[in-house]
């Protein structure tokens, strides 16, 4: 009864929320039933409910193959690199940008650093290609000019974790540093004044005032990153690597793997098993790390 | 002795500051070099690229790549698709997200915590590709329609939470005063709250616009008809397709004619990044105000 009373009392507010709520139900909650396919032998003609139940066969198929270890490792390893270097360098940039007094320099630098955030992964891939392509790329032409051998980057799987990390830092440093800067802007100037009176250097002010006061933002961003450590950035990996199977050994992540098994092999059941595995792993990690974060710092958990 | 210590500190301090400028300056430079490289080489002649490779300062310039790219029909139709999807998508998404976020932030709403959790949960536990694909392609039957490119991005929980934390900073008195004057919640939201929320609206609009403009995932999954290919898929085709002339350059081009491969790729890329990058200066002034730290917490 109280539900109806609440809804009628604030009916206009619930009307405002309705489109958003409908969206979540249709586009986020209804597709969850796709996880059922993981336990079935899915045939389009039979539909979701009509398909035959096969228990854990699809999972066995995935875990028996060498793929599961490779894609899980690649996903977590690449995301780990992105998280550490991406957030780390963005934090340093934000702290430094905050110290810059020259207004024009600061604005220009900030605009330049933020620019890569605006372009699509396919454009990024074109830029990477301009640097790395074997015959006419800047890197190889430079190597050649100095008498070194050309390198066929698009066949050398072992260097791609580093290249992808560079690209990630390049693209996202500006975005994350704005989030850090927003937090730094919120710090009261009084802290710095009294520190200056005590004779603290700029470096000391950064270490003893700025970083501790934005710690919760750092932790929250870190947690969001860790929570998604089993989710590869499909746009990034597929945009840059494409269907280049020579690089799969270090760059194939869970998301590109699922995409291939769905779109290329049309294997709904197998992909679905991989997706469910991914979702469950993701949920477990975020719960564990959230608990840890709360232990370290009571207010820093996500929920 | 005392003065010496102080001097040391100030030299250290100075070099620290210089180091900061150098680091930030270099990083900023590295951020725009790839843009420069792509833009400048799109004006380089194909033979110059073939002989000297991609250069920071090419020796021969030519507009041929642009003429060639613009001659085809695909660039126009792709532009239409991308602009339609971006404009319609962004308007709808910002409207729905702001309405929803306002309710999540409203203290009068008893179930706002349940709604928040429902929203947050979708960020942690996803349905994943398969369920999503079946929903769009089979259940809703949106394959090869523009709705498949628009609908899936209409409510991004992360952007919603950015808005929630902005709305929370607004004084509740506005609401009370308006209620006393006889305004209902719809009037309050559309006539009072939205107009004073420009910073966050601008920020979130930019995020949505970027997402729609740059997306190729949805088109890759759901669009097979090349009349409905957005710009990003056009780039992908041009990068991966050996036979570019069948896709751009118009049908009048015969295969024997030399196709400016790099040139066309680079020119297309430049044509697609222009419009979206010019958005930034307009929203820059709202930016830091729009993203507040609480945004990150549901």
Automatic annotation (TrEMBL), chain A:
It is found in: Cell membrane. SUPFAM superfamilies: MetI-like (SSF161098). It is a multi-pass membrane protein. Its main location: membrane. One of its GO terms (cellular component) is plasma membrane. Residues 72-293 form the ABC transmembrane type-1 domain. Keywords: Cell membrane, Membrane, Transmembrane, Transmembrane helix, Transport. PROSITE patterns: ABC_TM1 (PS50928). It holds the Pfam family BPD_transp_1. GO terms for biological process: transmembrane transport. InterPro entries: MetI-like, MetI-like_sf, UgpAE/MalFG_permease. The keyword Cell membrane applies. The chain crosses the membrane at residues 12-32, 76-97, 109-132, 173-192, 213-231, 275-293. It comes from the Bacteria. Belongs to the binding-protein-dependent transport system permease family. This is Sugar ABC transporter permease. It comes from Cohnella abietis.
Automatic annotation (TrEMBL), chain B:
The chain crosses the membrane at residues 20-44, 79-105, 117-140, 146-167, 188-210, 262-283. InterPro entries: MetI-like, MetI-like_sf. It is a multi-pass membrane protein. It is found in: Cell membrane. Gene3D superfamilies: MetI-like. Keywords: Cell membrane, Membrane, Transmembrane, Transmembrane helix, Transport. PROSITE patterns: ABC_TM1. CDD domains: TM_PBP2. This is ABC transporter permease. It comes from Cohnella abietis.
